[in-house]
Amino acid sequence: MSVILIVDDDDAFRESLAETLMDLGHAVLQSVDGVDALARLARDGIIDCVFLDFRLPDIDGLAVLERLRAMPARAGVAVVMLTGFATSDNTIHAMRLGAFEHLTKPVGREAIAQLLTKIDASAGPEPALPDLTDFDMGDAPRLLGRSEALREVQKQIGRAAMSNATVFFTGETGTGKEVAARVLHNASARKGGAFVAINCAAIPEDLLESELFGHVRGAFTGAVADRPGRFVQAHGGTLFLDEVGDLPLAMQAKLLRALQERVITPVGSERTVAFDVRIVAATHRDIARDVAAQTFREDLFYRLNVIPIALPALRERPDDIVPLAAHFLAVTAASGGPLRVLGATAEARLRGHAWPGNVRELRNAMERVAVLARGPQVTRDDLAFLHHAPPAHTGAGIPAALLALTLPEAIERLERAALHAALAESAGNRAEAARRLGISRQALYTKLAAYGVGRVSES
Fold first, then answer.
1. Beta strands in 54-100 (DSSP E)
2. How many Å apart are CA 280 and CA 181, to the nearest integer?
């Protein structure tokens, strides 16, 4: 049972809401204006939730919410804002001040029951920073994880750090290849030198040579002064060639010559410049396939692939998903953001997601949750945006029986399954099912009728 305070000057609505809440097993307190509500909040004992109207006869509901949030003892109380007419401004302002939900009157009994269930799930225990042994909170780059797959990568980096040999990191986008390169640099004898990174896929082809090797004044239009390239900038340190697999063939030949001769020639100059750098390269591409297709030089591949290290996808290290998520939430809290902890349902949803964007996607998801979660404990509802994330590989995991169907038959079977799943997850609530499916309610009705799916709640 929860203790709920209703703040509303509409006697009929307030009494009706109070009756519904009491029927649902909760104790109810009532206030008709903001001043009385703030007095109750200051003096009364436990109050678990507040239903607060926007328009009150003395001070408006947003002012009450703002003062409530300034009360240390009430900072965590769930507040549900009520309004007869929702606008963009009042909704955004309410959520910015930490309202749990914003409802438009009238409010049905089922919607209230579902909302209170969510509030209860989000409350959870008093949040505390998770145990993150091996998850250093410092500024230095870290390859975070305890799984065997990542431990093996860490061991390979440790061994590679003892030499100046070229290292070639491979792995899907978001697996942390640049982080791994920085870790390697910091563990090596070159850690006192510069770490210079260049994304080979992000530089226009006609500027790549200048970016890598530098240029002299007058070499081309706009070259008003001599400029050192990345090789010179990294002298004595490490040069990280990210997405090297996207280099055009002409640039591959020039890079190969530089690596073989250990000298570069700035654009517009006839003078060669010697360099002392450790080369670390990375790509998300299947380089062996590109070599076979003759879109990547075989001799350059062998020159780069001295110490190959493959970074595992996040789905290949499932034991790291929840600890990493907790770490990213803790990092957000340590930088001044709200403190959140993962509930059991949230952990289950994290483990069940394919994570096509790997660690980068997980970090972005946790930053999003830290801002938008409606309570200190993150629930599966706070991670609903993961529901429609695309699989890591198109076609992966699709049953052979489905692939054997014609396209219309396959689409129908998939839509039927998605409809049943969405209705089950939303306890038959059509509005919630439509939201989960990412379609309008009318579109949901059309599909239910077309496939003859059984009747559900109209709420």
1. 78-83
2. 7
